[in-house]
Write a structure and sequence with these properties.
By secondary structure, this protein is mostly helical. The protein is about 95% helix and about 0% strand.
């Protein structure tokens, strides 16, 4: 494999990892907020 191809592949992998980190962290945040909201609703009742 040529070094150019290896570099391009490494960049693609790094970008994919970066994208998945963004979506995962966003999903985790949403999950936290949802659970907080549910707890608040329960305490009001």
């Amino acid at each position: 494999m040529s070094s150019k191809r290896a570099m391009r592949q490494a960049q693609k992998q790094a970008y994919a990892k970066h994208r998945s980190n963004i979506t995962n962290s966003r999903f985790k945040l949403k999950k936290k907020f949802l659970t907080k909201n549910k707890e608040e609703k329960k305490s009001k009742n």
